Each structure stands twice: as structure tokens, then as C-alpha cells.
Amino acid sequence: MPLQHQHIVIKAYVKNTPTTTQAIEQWLLELIPAIGMKVLAGPYSVYLDLVGNRGLTGVAIIETSHIVAHVWDEDNPGLFQLDVYSCKEFDKETVFKHLDKFEVVSAEWFMLDRTDNLVITDPPTKGISY
To answer: CA–CA separation, 57 vs 47, rounded Å?
Structure first.
């Protein structure tokens, strides 16, 4: 099967912002098999307690690339930025479903096909209906 090079980028505002490294790592561990991927390393996460930039970063290296989540929890709703890149096809609806755990208030996203060129396969979309 040829490589797919799918890349989804999501910016969401959430009510139930994860605030611990354990919470974001567990969420990544649940998301990865749900989209048909396998963990190669991690997940790893850190919490930065810096006024104006307080929050989490979590990363997992998967066999086919990576997943990175950045979460800012100072505001309510909190900001959740997610980046899923894989050389294997995955279902974006499953990613959205898992993100809903954090009670999405609003979101925007786009999907890229990075196989040959950077082609936007799903143009930027706003709203909570993904």
C-alpha cells in the first residue's frame, strides 16, 4: 500500500481542559489505537507553569509519524491545538470524537495531503460540527 502522508491540524476551544501530564498522555494512548496507529515512543508530556503561556504539551511518536497536542489552560474555555501526521490513512472523524472528551466549544481544522505536494484535501473549516 502506498504511503498516504495525511496531516490534520485542529484548533479547538474546550471546556474540560486537561491540566496534568497523566491526562494528556492517557488521552494520546487512547487516540492512537482508535485511529489504527501504534506507539513507537512515548507519549511524553510536560506542563509549563508560566503566566501567559501556561499549559501542556504532549507528543507521541507513532510508527507512521507523530501526534502533538498543545493545551493552554489559563482561559476558559481553554485552547487545544492538535497535530496528527501519518504516512498511513486515518479517520478524521475518530480524531474529532476523541477530542470531544474535552467538551469542544468551537473548533477549526484542515486536512493536508503531503504525498507529492501540500494539497489541502479538506479546506479550513470552523464550527463544532467539524
So the answer is: 7
CB atoms inside a 10 Å sphere around CB 78: 23
Residue 123 has pLDDT above 90, yes or no: no
The one-letter code for the residue type at 69 is A
Tell me, what's the pLDDT at 4?
A: 77
Set out the domains of the chain in order of their start, with CATH numbers: 6-126 (3.60.90.10)
Cα distance between residue 25 and residue 15, in whole Å: 19
Percentage of residues of the chain with pLDDT beyond 70: 85
Would residue 79 be called left, alpha or beta, if left means φ above 0 and alpha means ψ between -120 and 50 degrees?
beta
Q: Looking at the chain, which runs of residues are DSSP E strands?
A: 6-14, 39-48, 55-62, 65-72, 78-86, 104-113, 119-126
Other CB atoms within 10 Å distance of the CB of residue 95: 21
Q: What's the whole-model pTM score? A: 0.87
Name the DSSP class of 14: E
| 3-state secondary structure (DSSP) of residue 95 | helix
Q: What is the pLDDT of residues 4-31, one digit of tens each?
A: 788 899 999 999 999 999 999 999 999 9
